[in-house]
Amino acid sequence: MFLSLARWRGKYVVLIERQEMRLKPSLICLALSLLLFSATSAWSADWKKGWDAYDKGDYATAAKRYSLAAEQGYDYAQYFLGLMYYEGKGVSRDYSAAFKWHSLAAEQGFALAQHKLGVMYVLGRGVIQDIVYAHMWWNIAASQGDEGAAEYRNKVAKKMTPSHIAEAQKLARECVRKKL
């Protein structure tokens, strides 16, 4: 068996090829750990450089670094890149791009991105305004301890009909059950 790391459709995958030689399971685990660690290290390096650039006010560099890590699936980078598109820092303001990156992070369970999607839905930025989906995303973020999302969910619920609230809660349960 031969293990290698390859990039496929923008993500890193481990390729396993069969050979006549047999490897011990502990050796396979070690090889997989090293491959996964090296991929994570690349994400972390881009994330860290992006964070440092953002902290210095170099938003263009931060956007480039976050983009590299975000494209590899790093949820923190996806969230912060979405935030940069939302605010127009280092990139042109683009609510559709912000929605894309926040959605990717939210689907991985990142509560801040879920919270931001609620904001985007209630304001209609990058998406069609929809308080049912805003409630759904805030409900999911609140279930992870985001107190601000719980407050917004409760405020928007006061403007909703009981059937809209029931629909939002059903959608939230389905998302959580499917692991977003």
Describe this structure in words.
The structure is a single chain. By secondary structure, this protein is mostly helical. The protein has one domain: Tetratricopeptide repeat domain (Serine Threonine Protein Phosphatase 5, Tetratricopeptide repeat). 68% of the residues lie in helices and 8% in strands. The chain has 8 helices and 2 strands; from the N terminus they run ββαααααααα. It has a two-stranded antiparallel sheet with strand order 1-2. β1 (2-8) and β2 form a beta hairpin. Residues 1-39 have low confidence and may be disordered.
What is the CATH topology assignment? Answer: Serine Threonine Protein Phosphatase 5, Tetratricopeptide repeat
Based on helices, strands and strand pairing, what is the structural class?
Answer: mainly alpha
Shape: elongated
Strand order of the largest sheet: 1-2
**In the CATH hierarchy, what is the class?**
Mainly Alpha
- Rg, Å, rounded: 20 Å
Helix content: 55-70%
Proportion of strand residues: 5-15%
Q: Give the uncertain stretches in residue-range form.
A: 1-39
Question: How far apart, in Å, are the first and last alpha carbons?
Answer: 34 Å
Average pLDDT reading: 81
Give the CATH H-level superfamily.
Tetratricopeptide repeat domain
> Which CATH architecture is right?
Alpha Horseshoe
